[in-house]
Amino acid sequence: MSSASRGDLTTRARIRDGAVECFAREGFSVSVRTIAEHAGVSPGLVIHHFGSKARLREECDTHVRGVITEVKTQTVEEASGAFMLQQMAEIEQYGPVLGYVLRSLQSGGVLAADFFELMVEDVERFMAVGVEAGTVASSRDPAARARYLTSSALGSLMLHTTLHHTGAEPDFGQVMQEWIEAYMLPALESYTEPVLLDRTLLDTYVAHAGGGAGDEGGTGTGDD
Amino acid sequence: MSSASRGDLTTRARIRDGAVECFAREGFSVSVRTIAEHAGVSPGLVIHHFGSKARLREECDTHVRGVITEVKTQTVEEASGAFMLQQMAEIEQYGPVLGYVLRSLQSGGVLAADFFELMVEDVERFMAVGVEAGTVASSRDPAARARYLTSSALGSLMLHTTLHHTGAEPDFGQVMQEWIEAYMLPALESYTEPVLLDRTLLDTYVAHAGGGAGDEGGTGTGDD
DNA sequence: CAATACATTAAACGCATGTTCAGGCTGCTG
DNA sequence: CAGCAGCCTGAACATGCGTTTAATGTATTG
């Protein structure tokens, strides 16, 4: 336990952090040898410390999850747009973590689902605040809307990454910037000015699906 | 050439079709041995016919691309909503192809980019028709909007697939149905009734970024 | 019927992978 | 100093991969 208390500069931690970087850069099929070389150790030592590649992956998952919740807590405590922007400016600092999350989102797995749910909760809370402030419209199903918005944004970001950075070393700062440049305007436009001028589609679907099968996620339908 | 003229029931074609299924079900890391077993032949024969796994993959790409353009041509010729719905009902028929495309979208590659551009073109044309008919609002940048809408929908579908069907054998009919059930209502709602009641964000962004890059679409913002 | 070309297979090759093993090195403890 | 325990390495092992090779069967053709 002495090594753990001494901080994070143990060889174990160095391997772990290096592994996060490698996983982010080259995907989860990166070899143990590459990870070992990146940390300046032998492949055997990686296994000696973590038991197996799968367990190393798990440890990376929990570590990344920890970083995320830490940042999230900070953000919630500050809860200011300025801090949020500052975070986005420092996004390069979290490059490996962001890359790791994106790789997880591509590959599936527990961390990906957890992260998605975390984002959904954030978005739902954020939207609720906007609704109360009068800047955001209320929804028939706030939870579903939050899931939809999260899924669209995250999925779009994923797609952009895979399509335009097929190389093994994507720069996530650049990816993010490209993505914002390409989609920010149409997104804001679509969310501010209705895309569909004809209400028929929505009304039809609401009459059809809303009457027959209500969803069980019972936060109730939002009213004005 | 006699074998090619006899139709598609050659061993080569059987292997190819089986490979598309395998790639769709298990991803592109599926082994040649699995593909061979699926087609009821030896691994060596697969290589003998296609030269290498990479070339087999290419052939699958072009084949899938062919199926897509064929279906697309039919759809354009018919161009009726009824036919479109019929196609969606028969979507299970195209399960392997759809799965293959989704895998491509996850892994990147030429087919993925091609398919995305194809979809963007379709969406842009479709939206233009709607704008002329008065059912769809005009956009400051129709091309960017088409890209955004396509990216959101496709990305969301991808994300849903990877998150909820982490198993090796996803049923794409079911995936599609789940996706529609989860996201159709909030999507229609968001596109029909503006999400953001405050125009500040949009106006700010337009003033900031729109000053540099002008819009060429410009039939006006088309609101009341 | 003999010859030729093709379809097909079983076995093996070379390689990269994750993992194991036996031992060497270092630092602490008696 | 002797000994022990941990960190660490280099080499080896087992496995699965894509691919090659030699040989077998099977038609078609002269």
From TrEMBL, chains A, B:
Top-level taxon: Bacteria
Record keywords, A-Z: DNA-binding
Protein name, as recorded: TetR family transcriptional regulator
Source taxonomy: Bacteria, Bacillati, Actinomycetota, Actinomycetes, Streptosporangiales
Ranges annotated as DNA-binding: 31-50
Domain HTH tetR-type, first and last residues per copy: 9-68
